[in-house]
Structure prediction request, 200 residues.
Amino acid sequence: MEGELEEAKQKLHKAKLEQQASELVRRQKEGEIDELRRQLARYQTQQLQARKNEEYQALSHEILVVTGEIEREEDNVLLLLEKADILQANVKREEQKAEQAEKEIQGKKKELADKESRLALLLAETESERERKKIRVDPALFGQYQRLVHGRRENAVVSVVHGSCGGCHMKLTRHTLLRVEVATEIAFCENCGRILFAIP
Prediction:
């Protein structure tokens, strides 16, 4: 989810950069249009002051050229304004996506934090219960159990399954099976040493 949020932020950043770049180009074009208009005004003033027909015609030609450039640049600005609307909508869309991703991740973090708190409380209660029950267990038996737990066993206590150890899956002797069934004393697997119990 954090990866999705980061991706959404990057897309938003990219959309904003595109919008800024387009805005910069538009302002440059508007500046160029202003300069062309000043140039047009100078040509028009010079044309009014022209005394020779050739000079008047030359200035008329320049005025036509500059007027054409102004029209082209104004068309470009209109296109950039249309693009700006599209880019603005894109930025808004990416902002909404980023906000939604942020809300979702905050909600998930809160949910996980609550779950962690509940599990920590449950673990503390379970460990406390374990400590209370431990004092009723024979210390030698508990020591053997601890060795099994720390001896890289998945489970120190396993059930008997079809006459075999539920841990190592080796067949148990008749004597061991009888001890498990009677349950008057703790029975151990002769192969792996796990504590055995029978499923009723």
